[in-house]
């Protein structure tokens, strides 16, 4: 078979093992911690609305000014929540990469010892660990959460001062004991609700990030159980029905369903130009320099076909099953002689 060059765009299909481990531990824990998100949607807004109404009955239009100041200051915790979300997503990706490196090393530990790659593997794991620790050393996520929590105490105090100042300086009203103590009680309720609201926001954001990660994983997992695709041939002069190969084809990990509101995040695409035919009952060799796409060609067995031109076709019969053995599978649990020569007497 002629040598061909293949090209593909990097996707998010890497670090699968590490991602599964994190989904089962960290992400599920985050979702449990964020289970009280209904507090943000229902309970807290109702309490805040009634507090504002009571303040209006007690202080009049000065309470409206104070609440207006509170509304204008809401973008600050909103921006902090947005930063917390971005930091959490980036940190989880680094954790996935580190867990994946450790898991892969343990899976092929025999091959690592066989070829003396201990220092190289240790260096790779330490490098990924250092990248992960950068987010923990900076403690950016914790600092942002601390600002959100502190804001839940400071914001009601500022709102109370602005309300009292507008009541006395703008509307020229006096603050008697009944007005002050009754309004302080309402402000205390408002402060508690804002504190609980800002306390739940970071946990809800982390739960949302974890939920998106689990949903993306399950969606891609379900995609692998779609109906098996038969040969797709657009060429008016197709090859024999039992042929194995493709021409002018593009392969993706996820089939794009019509009407889907958002495209899949796994946007890896493998483009194959011209025609590639495999011979049945023969050993087919794919030859090329490092990085040209030899492994990606075999990965097309598990991808979805996307026609690139009117003469595109592909035929990968899977009725009898498809087996894919990675390079590490050739290292056997035997002696070095048997592992290399496949025979103890060769």
Keywords:
6 strands; 346 residues; 6-stranded antiparallel β-sheet; ABC transporter transmembrane region fold; single chain; alpha+beta; disordered N terminus; 59% helix; 10 helices; 2 domains
Write a concise synopsis of the structure shown.
The chain has helices at residues 16-33, 38-59, 61-73, 75-107, 109-115, 118-138, 140-170, 177-223, 294-299, 336-341, and strands at residues 7-8, 232-233, 244-252, 269-278, 304-307, 313-315. The chain is an alpha+beta fold. Pfam families: AAA_23, ABC_membrane.
How is this structure best described in words?
The chain folds into 2 domains: 205 residues, ABC transporter type 1, transmembrane domain (ABC transporter transmembrane region fold, Up-down Bundle); 95 residues, no CATH class. 59% of the residues lie in helices and 9% in strands. The protein has 10 helices and 6 strands; from the N terminus they run E-H-H-H-H-H-H-H-H-E-E-E-H-E-E-H. The longest helix has 47 residues. The radius of gyration is 30 Å and the shape is elongated. Keywords: ATP-binding, Membrane, Nucleotide-binding, Transmembrane, Transmembrane helix, Transport. This is ATP-binding cassette transporter. GO terms for molecular function: ABC-type transporter activity; ATP binding; ATP hydrolysis activity; DNA binding. It comes from Thanatephorus cucumeris (strain AG1-IA) (Rice sheath blight fungus).
């Amino acid at each position: 078979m002629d040598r061909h060059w293949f090209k593909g765009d990097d996707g998010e299909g890497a670090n699968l093992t590490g991602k599964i481990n994190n989904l089962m531990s960290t992400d599920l824990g985050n979702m449990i911690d964020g289970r009280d998100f209904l507090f943000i949607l229902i309970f807290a807004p109702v309490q805040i609305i009634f507090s504002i109404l009571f303040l209006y009955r007690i202080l009049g239009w000065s309470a409206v000014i104070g609440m207006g100041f509170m509304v204008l200051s809401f973008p600050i915790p909103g921006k902090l929540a947005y930063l917390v979300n971005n930091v959490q997503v980036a940190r989880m990706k680094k954790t996935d990469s580190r867990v994946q490196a450790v898991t892969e090393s343990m899976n092929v530990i025999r091959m690592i010892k066989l070829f003396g790659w201990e220092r190289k593997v240790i260096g790779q794991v330490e490098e990924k660990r250092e990248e992960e620790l950068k987010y923990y050393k900076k403690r950016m996520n914790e600092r942002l959460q601390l600002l959100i929590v502190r804001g839940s105490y400071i914001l009601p105090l500022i709102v109370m001062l602005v309300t009292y100042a507008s009541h006395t300086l703008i509307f020229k009203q006096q603050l008697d004991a009944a007005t002050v103590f009754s309004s302080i009680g309402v402000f205390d309720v408002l402060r508690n609700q804002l504190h609980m609201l800002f306390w739940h926001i970071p946990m809800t954001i982390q739960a949302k990030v974890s939920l998106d990660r689990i949903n993306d994983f399950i969606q891609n997992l379900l995609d692998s159980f779609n109906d098996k695709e038969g040969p797709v041939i657009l060429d008016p002069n197709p090859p024999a029905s039992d042929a194995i190969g493709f021409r002018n084809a593009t392969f993706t990990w996820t089939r794009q369903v019509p009407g889907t509101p958002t495209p899949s995040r796994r946007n890896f695409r493998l483009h194959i130009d011209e025609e590639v035919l495999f011979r049945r009952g023969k050993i087919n060799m794919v030859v090329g320099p490092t990085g040209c796409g030899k492994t990606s060609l075999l990965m097309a067995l598990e991808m979805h076909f996307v026609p690139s031109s009117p003469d595109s076709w592909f035929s990968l019969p899977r009725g009898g099953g498809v087996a894919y053995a990675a390079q590490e599978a050739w290292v056997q649990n035997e002696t070095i002689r048997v592992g290399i020569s496949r025979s103890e007497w060769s």
